[in-house]
UniProtKB/TrEMBL annotation:
UniProtKB keywords: Transferase
One GO MF term: transferase activity
Annotated organism of origin: hydrothermal vent metagenome
Name of one Pfam family that matches: Glyco_trans_1_4
Protein name: Glycosyl transferase, group 1
PANTHER family attached to this UniProt entry: GLYCOSYLTRANSFERASE
Length: 302
């Protein structure tokens, strides 16, 4: 897999790098430059693959979608992170395979800790998910904080004023805003997620979220904590309702799920253990790498 940073010099370097590889994976890259790079690689007889774990465009940008569809046709195959993405890509590329999002377990350790207050956690990009956070979580957290001493750790708030105003105004809720971390550092991500009891995964049901691949749920499960998630997209397949987390839709369901986990340490432990085992069994990087390797090897054999 070749990484390209923006700029003409970097693009030229990418074109030269392609010469020394047999198989090229384009990961979530659909600009005209990447399309040109794929065409160049195909002219040289290279095998090209697309790796996608989100909708190709958050805002349905016409040019991005056009490039993406052209790259689908050009590619030798597509690695898609959810069944919904498989269905999206199949009409353009028959060789589309489900490759679930995966976790490098070495970087996600199960902690032993005891909090004075139950710590709820969300991790992500607050700039893009503030509407999901506010629209889904605000009312449940108001009611939960009125009953229980809880803390919310919001990792990736990105300095978004709307998030600060919405959640800081919840009476009784202790909140820890972490605007950013060194996302490229597995150690930094792992450290930020220490000492949390319950993972939150709120998603509004919309066209973009329909293609989500559940990485956030897998992160929570990998550190051995239960997940409370909107029953949207692939989360329905990843999370076993009542086994390693809860799938919820309404405000009342969010409240009931959080209340149950807050009041039951044994259930948090049981669900957290089950989630970690599931990630080890089905969603580890080792298993995904083996699957991708076998598909590429089959492609090389024709």
């Amino acid at each position: 897999m070749l990484r390209w940073k923006s700029g003409r010099v970097a693009l030229l370097h990418l074109f030269f790098e392609i010469l020394s590889h047999d198989d090229i994976i384009f990961q979530k890259t659909y600009s005209r430059y990447h399309k040109w790079a794929m065409k160049w690689a195909k002219l040289l007889g290279k095998r090209c693959y697309l790796d996608i774990d989100d909708a190709p465009s958050r805002i349905n940008a016409t040019k991005t979608l056009k490039n993406f569809r052209e790259m689908l046709v050009l590619a030798d195959g597509v690695f898609a992170g959810s069944n919904n993405l498989v269905e999206y890509c199949k009409p353009y590329q028959i060789n589309t395979w489900l490759i679930p999002s995966s976790i490098y377990l070495k970087h996600y350790l199960v902690d032993s800790f005891s909090n004075d207050k139950i710590c709820l956690c969300w991790i992500g990009n607050g700039k893009y998910y503030k509407q999901d956070l506010i629209g889904v979580l605000l009312e449940p957290l108001k009611q939960i904080a009125a009953k229980h001493p809880v803390r919310l750790k919001l990792i990736g708030a990105c300095g978004e004023k709307e998030l600060y105003q919405a959640f800081s105004g919840i009476k009784g809720l202790e909140i820890d805003f972490i605007d950013t971390i060194e996302w490229s550092s597995p150690a930094a991500v792992s450290k930020a997620m220490q000492n949390v009891d319950i993972g939150l995964y709120p998603l509004i049901s919309n066209d973009f979220n329909y293609y989500k691949c559940g990485f956030k749920a897998l992160e929570y499960m990998a550190i051995g904590i239960p997940v409370v998630s909107s029953s949207v997209a692939i989360n329905i397949d990843i999370i076993g309702h009542g086994k390693d987390g809860y799938l919820v839709d309404s405000t009342d369901e969010w409240i009931a799920a959080l209340n149950d986990l807050i009041c039951n340490a044994a259930k948090r432990q049981e669900m957290g253990d089950a989630g970690r085992k599931k990630v080890e069994q089905y969603y580890s990087v080792d298993k995904t790498a083996s699957l991708i390797g076998s598909l590429i090897t089959c492609g090389a054999r024709g």
